[in-house]
Design brief:
By secondary structure, the protein is mainly α. It has 10 helices and no strands. α1 crosses α4, α3 crosses α10 and α5 packs antiparallel against α6. The chain is globular. The two termini are about 20 Å apart. The mean pLDDT is about 90.
């Protein structure tokens, strides 16, 4: 039970970081905000992930945290793909972290990179399910100009750039999270 409470607290913190990333991507990357949201979230959330892993250190923590975020995305109107991505990538990340007994620094960094792809669920339909995405926007009352704006920068190049940005930002965010945990939280007895 204490582990579930800890996972819940860190899931809430991670969700808050995703909200900050959403605001930052909207303000700083007009027109590209949604496709770079997972990368920005990966950049700023590494500490939350690393601290949660250090506190829980058992299989299931990473998976549950991803599922909580995915469930929120699903109930807030995103495609079912957003929930599927929030299960598949966190589960894979959990398995990677477990292989290193939740202590191997490189394994945890790789785990965080994989985990960060869990937020791609809401944006993958832009490239792979365009017709369904357009239909959902029309059902929500969005006009043609809005829909054209959403798809203005959606092409093969932006897909690869977005996916590469997630990997790079997750590596930087995860590395920073590890350093912060080792330098500050471990000394304080938190991690």
């Amino acid at each position: 039970m204490p582990d579930l409470i800890t996972i819940g607290v860190f899931s809430a913190l991670y969700f808050a970081m995703v909200a900050v990333a959403t605001l930052a991507s909207t303000l700083l990357l007009a027109g590209f905000g949604s496709i770079f949201l997972p990368a920005i979230a990966a950049l700023i959330s590494g500490c939350v992930f690393m601290l949660m892993v250090a506190r829980v250190g058992k299989f299931g923590g990473i998976t549950i945290m991803g599922m909580v975020i995915g469930l929120f995305l699903f109930v807030s109107g995103h495609f079912v793909l957003s929930f599927i991505a929030s299960i598949v990538f966190p589960l894979a990340a959990d398995l990677i972290a477990r292989a290193g007994k939740y202590r191997n620094r490189i394994g945890l960094l790789i785990s965080y990179v994989v985990f960060s792809y869990g937020l791609t669920g809401p944006i993958l339909p832009l490239w792979f399910m365009k017709d369904a995405y357009v239909a959902s926007l029309e059902a929500r009352g969005k006009d043609t100009a809005y829909i054209a704006g959403v798809f203005a920068h959606i092409n093969t190049g932006t897909f690869f750039i977005s996916m590469a940005a997630i990997a790079v930002c997750a590596l930087v965010g995860g590395w920073f999270g590890q350093r912060l945990c080792a330098k500050h939280f471990a000394k304080a007895g938190i991690a």
